[in-house]
Design brief:
By secondary structure, the chain is of the alpha+beta class. It has four domains: 30 residues, no CATH class; 67 residues, no CATH class; 182 residues, Barwin-like endoglucanases, CATH 2.40.40; 134 residues, no CATH class. 30% of the residues lie in helices and 14% in strands. The strands form seven sheets. The protein has a six-stranded mixed beta barrel. A three-stranded antiparallel beta sheet has the order 4-3-5, with no helix packed on it. α5 crosses α8 and α15 packs antiparallel against α17. It is globular and about 110 Å long. The relative contact order is 0.09.
Length: 586
């Protein structure tokens, strides 16, 4: 009866089906009542990038940019190399004419006289001060494979710095810059004493994931009211004097809030720089920092890996998260969208003191990820368009939601104030508003589960458990996608890499593209494989378990079995698979 009444109420008029309208539109037109969808558009999101906060290191980590060659063994240890009776290395051809000593510094460590550079013609081997050989009509080179008094230099720097070198004192196998210019050994010794490693350009860095922020409370960042007033934060967002740690304050354009872990790392870097200034350069200390609180107010440089311009920022506080909070304009000045990317931060003095373009490679891309230029000011009109589209209003008007119904282009909606509408005015720097307030900056868990779990098997097992709890997720389809996009390509790629692998010496670390006929290194020690069976089949057992437990395609089951048979043909039948903890989970 109710259905009949409802039908007569809606369809007094005959239904027009000639225009092929949707059911909702037909009902709306016939009844005279506007009926809309519960939602207009849905999207799926796959989040695969956890937060990151860790020191930036070369692979493998090194203490100093000094070439040790094969003499330092697998760890490239300069102490081990110094025990050799004759240490030769390919290095910048700089000598002291007075002492006739090879030097890596501008001034001789013995007589303090300025050293000279000898350029050598690669053809006739004549030396001169010119960059071009007039005889052979070729460019000269400024580096030479020559003997270097490494043992004596290591002893000298220990006496000069007042610190002892510990094994391993790691260098690099060879330098990548054009003239083979090495870094002073003293800097590597000071870094080692503080547990620091160097990057390819001579700086010490810390990486953190970008996160945009426009407002904060002093209680969130652990900075006192007095210190914030010294930094210029005298009033809150409502114009009231700042006196309470729970007042809301607008973040200034180039101020940043960094992870507490990075603060500890920057304290060690500041100590390293102070000792470097006094012991190596003979200058007074600069930072004199003892804890992270004393870092507040100091300047840093933010740098994205694909750029060559560092952006100056100021530390105003710390959080227990693993992200670097800063204004959208500051992140955008680094040419970042704050969509999960991690950038490096370094102390400004470290970049000014230790960075050198001469350490960088002259190959394509060699100048990337280096602070060739430093931008002292962030101007919003120079930021990327993504930052200009940030809304700075207190609420969304009704006209905005009406625009969403008609699905207007975002660029045509003018009812919401964005940064773009403030460009070239004073308000482009301050006075940003927000629509929703929060009680805290971080959640109770400062790290995501993905970054705390150990192996990939643990992570995938948790993913399966979550998928089983969500009705909207088809677990069988998810497992099938993982097998197709990850497991099968990984197993095939590892098997292919096994057939193309190189061989490494266990003593000197020399790498061979093909196994020599003598089946041992030129130094007499044995060679080992760089890729093992375990690395090839590390995902095979997981793949077999998944195709057996879940409803996957016949092709996938056959593909996994074919890969298993192929691995057995290469390595032979295995005696038995090791049981995994995930085998005993339901």
């Amino acid at each position: 009866m109710e259905a009949k009444i409802f039908f007569n109420l809606l369809f007094r008029k005959p239904i027009n089906t000639k225009n092929n309208f949707s059911v909702l539109k037909i009902i709306s037109q016939t009844s005279g009542i506007s009926i809309r969808k519960k939602f207009s558009t849905s999207i799926g999101v796959r989040i695969g990038r956890p937060e990151k906060a860790a020191p930036r290191q070369m692979k493998p980590p090194v203490h100093v940019l000094f070439p040790v060659g094969q003499k330092g063994g697998a760890t490239r240890d300069l102490l081990k190399a110094s025990t050799q009776p004759n240490f030769y290395t390919n290095i910048f051809n700089r000598t002291c004419k007075k002492c006739n000593e090879i030097s890596i510094s501008i001034k001789c460590s013995k007589c303090n006289e300025k050293t000279s550079i000898a350029h050598i013609c690669p053809n006739c081997r004549n030396t001169s001060d010119l960059l071009f050989c007039e005889k052979c009509k070729k460019n000269t080179i400024a580096h030479l494979y020559q003997p270097f008094p490494l043992k004596r230099n290591l002893k000298t720097i220990q006496e000069r710095i007042g610190k002892r070198i510990h094994e391993p004192f790691k260098g690099v196998k060879e330098l990548i810059n054009q003239d083979r210019i090495a870094e002073p050994l003293e800097k590597g010794l000071i870094r080692q004493s503080f547990g620091l490693t160097v990057f390819k350009d001579g700086t010490v860095r810390f990486d953190a994931t970008n996160s945009p922020l426009t407002h904060f409370k002093p209680s969130w960042i652990g900075t006192s009211i007095e210190k914030l007033k010294d930094l210029g934060y005298t009033h809150d967002v409502n114009g009231k004097p700042l006196f309470d740690s729970n007042q809301l304050v607008e973040l200034r354009m180039q101020d940043i809030i960094i992870p507490a872990e990075s603060g500890k790392h920057l304290v060690e870097i500041s100590k390293y720089i102070d000792i470097e200034l006094t012991k190596f350069y003979g200058k007074p200390t600069f930072y004199n920092v003892k804890n992270t609180n004393e870092l507040i107010g100091h300047l840093v440089i933010g740098l994205a890996p694909h750029t060559s311009v560092g952006i100056v920022g100021r530390i105003i506080g710390f959080t227990d998260t693993h992200v670097c909070f800063a204004t959208p304009n500051w992140h955008s000045a680094k040419r970042r969208d704050a969509d999960g990317d991690a950038d490096s931060i370094m102390l400004l003095m470290d970049s000014l003191l230790n960075f050198s373009r001469q350490f960088l490679s002259d190959n394509i891309g060699g100048l990337m990820d280096a602070p060739l230029l430093i931008q002292p000011l962030v101007l919003p009109h120079e930021s990327q368009p993504q930052a200009h589209n940030l809304e700075v209003t207190k609420f969304f008007p009704l006209s905005f939601f009406e625009s969403t119904i008609s699905q207007q282009k975002a660029s045509d909606v003018t009812s919401v104030e964005i940064i773009k509408s403030r460009l070239d005015t004073k308000e482009q720097f301050y006075g940003y508003h927000f629509t929703h307030e929060t009680s805290k900056l971080t959640s109770s868990k400062s790290r995501s589960a993905y970054s705390t779990l150990g192996s990939m098997l643990d992570k995938f097992d948790m993913q399966l458990r979550n998928a089983n709890l969500i009705d909207a997720v088809d677990t069988n389809e998810m497992v099938s996608n993982v097998i197709s996009t990850h497991l099968i390509p990984d197993i095939m790629g590892n098997l292919r890499a096994y057939g193309r692998q190189s061989f490494r010496c266990t003593a000197c670390g020399r790498s061979y593209r093909r196994l020599p006929l003598l089946q041992h290194c030129v130094c007499g020690n044995k060679l080992i494989q760089t890729i093992t069976r375990a690395s090839v089949e590390k995902y095979l057992k997981l793949a077999k378990r998944l195709v057996g437990k879940y409803k996957t395609s016949t092709y996938q089951k056959g593909r996994i079995q074919a890969l298993s048979d192929e691995i057995d043909l290469v390595f032979g039948k295995s005696e038995g698979d090791q049981a995994l903890l995930t085998d005993y989970t339901n």
